[in-house]
Write a structure and sequence with these properties.
This protein is α+β, with helices and mostly antiparallel strands. The chain is extended and about 110 Å long.
Length: 658
C-alpha cells in the first residue's frame, strides 16, 4: 500500500458482493465480524424481514431513550467497567432477554417516578398557597377562611397574586393588599353574578388566583389552614424522600446489570443494522460493500471455506469508495487531526505525514520547556483518559499517542534550549534563538515560508495530476516568488543585514534580478488566474501575493506563544522568589528560610500548573490553526467518507448521561 513519508494514499479497495442462502445468514455475519475488514453498504430491498429488522431497531432505540431516566435518578453520570463477552450466535437471545428485563425494570421505575412527579407538583402547589396564607396571617391577623375564598349566592371573595402595578378590573373591590416579594397579594370581593368574567379579566391583567386545596371541615380559620397545609407538606416531603431513596437503592443495586444489558443491546443494534444492509431476494440474500485489497483474499477464503452455498465477487470499485487512511506507525497517531478537518477522498493525497511533522515541530517550539514537557507527559499518562467517554476507543488511543509525541517534541526542544520551569539549566543551550525574541520571530517566519512553499508545491502537483494548467501556472508563480523570498531571508544571516532592508532593496530596485523575477512570476500568476476565472482573475491575482504575506506573518505566533510560555514561567519564578526572599529577610535565619520555602512552594506549583495548562492549550490550538488554515486550505479538500468496517464491539467502559 502507498504509505509515504510526506504524503500517503488511502488504502486501495475492492468492491465485494456476497450472495448466500438465508440459512447461512448468521454464519456470514460471524465471518464478517471476525475479520472486521468489510465496509457494508446499504442494499435497498423491501420485504417482511427488513421491516421486522427496522421495527426491532426502533424498539431498541426507544428503549435506549427511556434508559436516560437512570442517571437522572442516580443524580448524575455513571461510569462503569463492563466486561462482557458474547458470541454472535448468543447475542440475539441475550439481547431479547435483556430487553425484557430492562422493560420490566423501567416500568416499575417509571411508575415510581410518575408518583414522584405528582408529589413534587403537589408540594409546589401547597408551598405556594402556604406562602400566601402566611403572608395574610402576618399582615391581617387570623380570620375566617372566607376572607380569602368564599362563593355565595350574592357575593364572593378571592385571593389574587400578581404585579403590584397591575389594576383590578371592574367588578372586583380590593379589601387588602400585601407585598410578597416582587408581587402583591390582593384580597378582593365582588358580586357572584360577575364572578367568572371578573376573574378572567384579572388573569388578563396578570393576576393569578390563589386557590385553596381541599381542607378538612375543622379548618375554618387561616391559622387552621396553615397548620393543616404544613402537616400535609411535611407528609408529602417525607413520602417523596422515601420514594427517591428506595428508587435510587433499587437502581443502584441493579446498575451493573442494567449496564451489561445496555452494552449487549448496543451490540445487537449494530448486528441489526448490518442485517438491514442485507438485500433480500426471493431465494438468496445479498450484501455489498468494500474491502481493502490486502484483506480481499482472506475474505474470499473464509467465505468459500466456511459456507456451502455462498458466492463472492471482487471487482474494481465504481464511484467513490470509503476511505481507509494508511500511514506508518507513529505518523498514524496524527490521523485524528486530519479526520477533524475532513476525511481524504479515495483518490486524494492524505497529508497526515506532513501534518505529523508540522504539528510536532510547532508544538515543540511553542512549549520548549523541559519541565513543562515532563508535566505534559504525566498529564497525558495519568489524567487525559478521565476526560473521555471511552478510553478504549481507537480514536482516543491514537490521540493519546499523538500527545505523547508532542510532549516528546517539547522535551527535545526544552533540552536543546536548556530551560525547565522557566529556569536556565546548568549547561550551554544548543539552541539559543528561542531565548531571543527577534531571532525567534525570524526563525518562525522562515519556518512559515517553507511550510507555505510546500503547500503550494503540493497544490501545483495536484493541478498537474488533474490536468488543470491554469492552476498549475498560478501555483508555480507563487512557489518561485516564495523560494526567492526564502533565499533573501537566509542570505540575511550570511551578510548580517536586516531582512527588511534586503527585501525592500531588491524588490524596489527596478534593475534588480529579484524585481524582474517578481514581475515575471506575477505575470504568470495573472495568466493562470485569468485561465481560471476570466477577466476577474487580473484583480484577484493580486490577492494571491498579499495572501502569502499574511499567511507567512501568521507563523510569528510560534515565537509569540513560545516566548509567552518562557516569560510567564520566568515572571512567576521572579515574583514568587521575591516573596520567599522577603519572608526570609523579615524573619531571618533558618526559620525565615523555611517559612519562605513553605510559602513559595505551593505558589510555584499552582503558577506552573496554570502556565502549563494555558501554554499546552495555546500550543495545541495555534499549531492546529497553522496546519489547518495556512497549510491544508492550499491543496486539501477532505470530502471523503470514512471506512467503517463491520464489527460488533462490546465496550469495556460505559458512561450513562442524563
Amino acid at each position: 500500500m502507498p504509505k509515504g513519508i510526506l504524503l500517503s494514499l488511502p488504502a486501495r479497495m475492492r468492491k465485494v458482493t456476497i450472495a448466500f442462502s438465508k440459512g447461512e445468514r448468521d454464519q456470514i455475519i460471524s465471518i464478517l465480524q471476525d475479520l472486521g475488514t468489510v465496509h457494508l453498504e446499504r442494499v435497498e430491498e423491501k420485504g417482511e424481514v427488513l421491516e421486522e429488522i427496522r421495527r426491532r431497531l426502533r424498539e431498541i432505540e426507544a428503549l435506549k431513550s427511556r434508559l436516560s431516566i437512570v442517571p437522572r435518578i442516580l443524580g448524575g453520570p455513571v461510569v462503569l467497567e463492563v466486561n462482557t463477552k458474547v458470541s454472535s450466535f448468543e447475542l440475539e437471545k441475550l439481547a431479547r432477554r435483556g430487553e425484557e428485563t430492562l422493560k420490566s425494570l423501567l416500568f416499575e421505575a417509571e411508575k415510581v417516578t410518575s408518583r414522584i412527579e405528582e408529589l413534587e407538583s403537589e408540594i409546589s402547589r401547597i408551598s405556594e398557597v402556604l406562602e400566601a396564607l402566611r403572608a395574610v396571617l402576618e399582615a391581617q391577623g387570623d380570620a375566617s377562611l372566607e376572607v380569602v375564598e368564599y362563593s355565595g349566592k350574592h357575593v364572593f371573595s378571592a385571593l389574587l397574586r400578581g404585579p403590584c402595578m397591575a389594576t383590578l378590573p371592574e367588578g372586583l373591590e380590593e379589601v387588602f393588599r400585601i407585598e410578597l416579594g416582587e408581587d402583591c397579594l390582593v384580597g378582593v370581593v365582588g358580586l357572584s353574578e360577575v364572578r367568572e368574567s371578573a376573574l378572567r379579566q384579572a388573569e388578563q391583567e396578570g393576576f393569578s388566583r390563589v386557590s385553596l386545596p381541599e381542607l378538612p371541615p375543622e379548618a375554618r380559620t387561616i391559622s387552621d389552614a396553615v397548620r393543616f397545609l404544613e402537616a400535609a407538606l411535611e407528609e408529602r416531603r417525607s413520602t417523596l424522600a422515601r420514594l427517591e431513596k428506595d428508587l435510587r437503592s433499587t437502581l443502584g443495586d441493579r446498575i451493573r446489570e442494567v449496564a451489561a444489558y445496555l452494552v449487549v443491546l448496543e451490540a445487537e443494534e449494530e448486528r441489526l443494522r448490518a442485517l438491514e444492509a442485507l438485500g433480500e431476494g426471493k431465494y438468496l440474500e445479498v450484501v455489498e460493500g468494500y474491502v481493502p485489497v490486502d484483506s480481499a483474499m482472506d475474505l474470499r477464503a473464509r467465505i468459500l471455506d466456511e459456507t456451502t452455498t455462498a458466492a463472492i465477487v471482487l471487482e474494481e470499485p465504481s464511484g467513490k469508495p470509503p476511505t481507509k487512511m494508511e500511514n506508518y506507525r507513529g505518523i498514524n497517531w496524527y490521523e485524528p487531526l486530519v479526520r477533524f478537518y475532513g476525511i481524504p477522498d479515495y483518490d486524494e493525497w492524505d497529508p497526515t505525514p506532513l501534518i505529523a511533522y508540522s504539528f510536532a515541530l510547532f508544538f515543540g517550539l511553542m512549549l520548549a520547556d523541559l519541565g513543562y514537557a515532563i508535566g505534559l507527559l504525566l498529564a497525558v499518562k495519568l489524567v487525559l483518559h478521565k476526560f473521555v467517554e471511552d478510553p478504549e476507543s481507537e480514536f482516543f488511543k491514537l490521540f493519546r499517542k499523538m500527545m505523547y509525541a508532542n510532549a516528546f517534541s517539547s522535551l527535545v526542544f526544552g533540552a536543546l534550549t536548556a530551560t525547565a520551569f522557566g529556569f536556565s539549566l546548568p549547561y550551554k543551550p544548543l539552541l539559543s534563538f528561542p531565548l531571543e525574541p527577534t531571532a525567534f520571530i525570524k526563525v518562525s517566519l522562515i519556518i512559515g515560508l517553507i511550510h507555505i512553499i510546500v503547500a503550494h508545491t503540493i497544490a501545483a502537483a495536484r493541478a498537474l495530476r488533474e490536468g488543470s494548467r491554469s492552476t498549475f501556472l498560478n501555483e508555480i508563480g507563487i512557489i518561485v516568488v516564495g523560494v526567492d523570498v526564502l533565499y533573501l531571508f537566509l542570505l540575511s544571516y550570511r551578510v548580517h543585514k536586516s531582512v527588511v532592508d534586503l527585501l525592500l532593496g531588491n524588490y524596489m530596485d527596478f534593475h534588480s534580478p529579484h524585481f524582474m523575477l517578481l514581475v515575471a512570476m506575477f505575470a504568470l500568476v495573472v495568466v493562470g488566474k485569468v485561465g481560471q476565472m476570466g477577466g476577474l482573475g487580473v484583480l484577484l491575482s493580486l490577492f494571491d501575493f498579499t495572501g502569502i504575506l499574511g499567511d507567512v506573518l501568521s507563523y510569528a505566533r510560534i515565537a509569540g506563544v513560545g516566548m509567552a510560555t518562557l516569560f510567564l514561567a520566568g515572571g512567576f519564578n521572579l515574583m514568587i522568589g521575591m516573596l520567599a526572599g522577603a519572608i526570609h529577610s523579615a524573619l531571618g535565619g533558618i526559620l525565615g528560610l523555611a517559612l519562605g520555602a513553605v510559602a513559595a512552594f505551593p505558589l510555584y506549583v499552582f503558577a506552573h500548573l496554570i502556565n502549563l495548562g494555558l501554554s499546552a492549550l495555546g500550543a495545541g490550538v495555534h499549531s492546529l490553526r497553522l496546519c489547518f488554515v495556512e497549510f491544508l486550505t492550499k491543496f486539501y479538500e477532505g470530502s471523503g467518507r470514512e471506512f467503517r468496517p463491520f464489527r460488533i464491539p462490546l465496550r469495556r467502559t460505559l458512561r450513562l448521561l442524563p
